[in-house]
Amino acid sequence: MAQTLNISGKDKEMIKRGMEAAKAKAREMNQEGINMALARGDGTILATDFVEKANCFKNTAAGKVKALANGNHVDDPGACKAICVVCFFCCCSCCGGSLAIPGGLQFRVNGEEYIFSASGATDPYDDEKVSIAAIEAMGGAITRFPIGSPNAAPKQQTMS
């Protein structure tokens, strides 16, 4: 069950739809270790959830949110990306908890900006697929994809 913080009734329903869709996509891809986070565009976490159980990927999902909220996009993650992709189980303390690797996406619903992040798949672009499923279930429109994302149409790759 999603852990929600300071959420109104209609937002709780949107969050529930998103988290359930994310879990279904993760299970479809046999990625039961994924943890998710939903935040406002400023990075304020609204809800967290997981497919099977909470684990260290809760921290990496939050780190992806923090990176996007702070404008640290995936287009130039530097050495931290290499370290964190190789050691995907770490919480990436080398960059203060901000983790600029695929899996988190910025989107809008009814004019409001949000970030959805998934973490725990062996391929971070699979995390991104889980985020896409959640965003679609919430009726969101993705505003940014990482450059080179295999999940985006060429016109959707807007990070620069």
Structure, briefly:
The protein is of the alpha+beta class.
Task: Please characterize this protein's 3D structure.
This protein has four helices and six strands. The chain has 160 residues and is α+β, with helices and mostly antiparallel strands. The chain has one domain (3-156): Haem-degrading domain (Beta-Lactamase, 2-Layer Sandwich), CATH 3.30.450.150. The protein has a six-stranded antiparallel sheet with strand order 1-3-2-5-4-6, with helices on both faces. Strand 2 and strand 3 form a beta hairpin. The longest helix is centred in the N-terminal third of the chain and has 20 residues, at 9-28. The protein is globular and about 35 Å long.
Share of helix among residues? Answer: 25-40%
- At the first level of CATH, the class is Alpha Beta
As a percent range, the share of strand residues is 15-25%
Mean pLDDT value: 81
The total number of structural domains is: 1
Biggest sheet strand line-up: 1-3-2-5-4-6
Helix and strand element order? EHEEHHEEHE
What is the CATH H-level superfamily? Haem-degrading domain
Model regions low in confidence, pLDDT < 50 over at least 5 residues? 76-81, 91-96
SSE order and pairing:
Blueprint lengths: L2 E2 L4 H20 L6 E6 L4 E6 L6 H13 L8 H9 L17 E6 L2 E8 L4 H14 L3 E4 L16
Antiparallel strand pairs: 1-3, 2-3, 2-5, 4-5, 4-6
